[in-house]
Amino acid sequence: MKKIILLCILAVSMFACKSKSVTGTNENTKAQVAMKGNWVISSVTYPGSQYIKVNSFQIADSECFVGSTWKFVSNNNKGNMALTKAGCTSFSSPITWFVNKDGQFVLKVLDAGIKAKKVREGYILMVANQTATSFQLIDKIDVGGKITDVVYQFQKN
User: Fold this and answer.
1) Separation of alpha carbons 54 and 37, rounded Å
2) pTM, to two decimals
3) Which residue of 57, 77, 89, 112 shows the fewest CB atoms closer than 10 Å?
4) CATH number of the domain where residue 69 is located
């Protein structure tokens, strides 16, 4: 009987120590409402590391994102993005997104006809310098063992 009780306590304690997920935290509604609308990426920079090549979101070279258009709908956390820069592969996709209470921007790039809950991979970026007409999303990447920022500068369209 003691073994059964001990086993039950152990099982309960294992489930109680669940790790915190960025997708499980509450949303920052104020930050999301400020992002509502149509935006353009005006620049992509790598502070302190100007000579690197980055494949952003496993879609295209980061320089192809300059001029890309993004639409964020805050009431349902959906939107879309489109790459249209000359000399780059054109790309367009629906997205789902939200900003959590920790200031992290959680993004999923969706394939046409696939629901967001079926997509298991996404991206977590930090929101910075948010104003009514601009904001930055900062991605952290590993370049030769050194963590480097990739800064996407958004301007209201």
Assistant:
1) 27
2) 0.78
3) 112
4) 2.40.128.280
DSSP 1: -
In a domain, residue 45? The reply is yes
Looking up tokens 């999923």 gives 108
Q: What domain range is 118 assigned to? A: 26-156
| Average pLDDT of adjacent 10-residue blocks, the chain of 157 residues | 48 42 65 94 87 87 95 92 93 93 92 56 92 96 89 96
Asked if the structure places residue 9 within a domain, the reply is no
How many domains, the chain? 1
Distance CA 136, CA 154 (A): 6
Count of all residues that appear for the chain in the document: 157
